[in-house]
Amino acid sequence: MTTMRVGIYERAWMWAAGVLIVLFLAMLGYAAVAQGLRPPSHIETIDPRAVFDDPRFANPGVTAGPDGRVIVTSLAMTFAFQPAEIRVPANRPVSFGLTSSDVQHGFQIVGTNANTMVIPGYVSEFTTVFKRAGEYLIVCNEYCGVGHHLMSSKLIVEAAP
Ligand code: CUA
User: Which atom of ligand 1 is nearest to the CA of 151?
Assistant: First the structure.
């Protein structure tokens, strides 16, 4: 029988790499459990099986908030967004609230920096201002199944009258 000989330097590097892996996992575990770290926009939760009965998403579309801000609620599902068309004014803060009724989707407004993941069980939120009036394409940028490439909707930014 032959025994494998491992050089002292190789042995040291193997141990160093092993210790680092354990250290990183411990830090990750500590941040997730003890500090409750999670993606910043995913603080509000929702039961993904009851999305259609949830009052927050009962009427997806555009509404006015109490402070005059524009609120857009949109639902992502395989393989469409609800509503299929969103109309918002230019140069006003627009707050988006999004959730998924099934798997993970993306919500990217092409030509802007508006882009978020839509994860079942969470409400993704972001606020932005559209400076240019026009028509924008909204696409799903997370692979979600065979109809992923068909998943899109439209945003129309209207210039102030
Ligand atoms: Cu939804 Cu890709």
Answer: 1
Helix (H) or strand (E) holding 156: strand 152-158
Residue 81 sits in the same domain as residue 130: yes
Cβ–ligand 1 distance for 105 under 6 Å, the answer yes
Asked if residue 144 has its Cβ within 6 Å of ligand 1, the reply is: yes
Residues 71-86: tens digit of each pLDDT: 999 999 999 999 999 9
Q: Does residue 161 surpass a pLDDT of 80?
A: no
Largest CA distance in the chain: 88
Which amino acid is it at 106? G
Shared domain check, 28 and 86: no
pTM score of the predicted model: 0.73
Token pair listed for 64: 């006015």
Residues 115 and 154 in one domain: yes
CB distance 102 to ligand 1 below 6 Å = no
Domain interval for residue 5: 1-37
Dump pLDDT digits (tens) for 98-142: 999 999 999 999 999 899 999 999 999 999 999 999 999 999 999
The finding on whether 148 has its CB within 6 A of some atom of ligand 1 is yes
How many angstroms separate the CA atoms of 150 and 161, rounded?
34
